[in-house]
Design brief:
Length: about 210
């Protein structure tokens, strides 16, 4: 399954495309779409929309994932980011791709294991999970969003197929056993957890089992 991750920004919008086959992830392409700062806002939004549309048409991903907007201290910057995000969000939707949204902390936790990881840490893990990728900054963030979506899809698929058993034991999660996450039965009588499976996917990818 070919997936595209999008990291929206008015000046630079990062994009990253990966192939996800089960637990295997591979880098396909990545880059940045830029808008001209000298143009009016409406024209800059068109540049972002047209640029992402061209990327999707060229690489033909089947699903898209985008980072959710965060609210910063500057309301003007937040508004501009929201407008840029709208233009970027519309590009895959207009072409009929399903689009999922993920918070920045969720993406970082999925890829690095820490919700407040620095950009440098995200770049390092993206390169480790996607051998051959040299993406930095916005493009690396976009690839991280695609990786997060791939892990989420894998988790959801296994959850729906019954491969993950629900439950907790004293808050401690067990080890991966043959692709399953297990914890010893506690008083609740249930095993494993969906969140644990996401962490298991990350661990398996990080030690080389999830990448090529």
């Amino acid at each position: 399954m070919r997936l595209i991750g999008l990291d929206p920004g008015l000046r630079n919008t990062g994009w990253g495309i990966i192939e996800a086959e089960g637990n295997r992830l591979a880098h396909v392409a990545s880059g940045i779409v830029q808008s001209d700062q000298d143009k009016p806002l409406a024209e800059r939004l068109c540049q972002l929309f047209d640029g992402i549309t061209a990327v999707i048409v060229e690489w033909q991903p089947r699903e898209a994932a985008i980072e959710e907007t965060f609210v910063n201290k500057n309301p003007t910057s937040t508004l501009k980011l929201g407008q840029a995000r709208g233009a970027v969000l519309m590009a895959p939707a207009k072409l009929g791709l399903p689009v999922r949204e993920y918070g920045a902390n969720h993406v970082k936790k999925s890829v690095v294991g820490v919700g407040h990881a620095e950009k440098r840490q995200v770049e390092m893990m993206v390169r480790r999970l996607l051998p051959g990728s040299t993406a930095t900054a916005d493009a690396a963030d976009a690839l991280a969003i695609a990786i997060c979506h791939a892990h989420h899809r894998g988790t959801s698929g296994r959850w729906a197929g019954g491969a993950v058993m629900a439950g907790v034991e004293g808050g401690d999660l067990g080890a991966v056993r043959g692709g399953r996450v297990g914890a010893g039965r506690g008083k609740s009588g249930v095993r494993g957890s969906k969140a644990a499976w996401e962490q298991a996917l990350l661990a398996r990818a990080a030690d080389g089992k999830g990448g090529r």
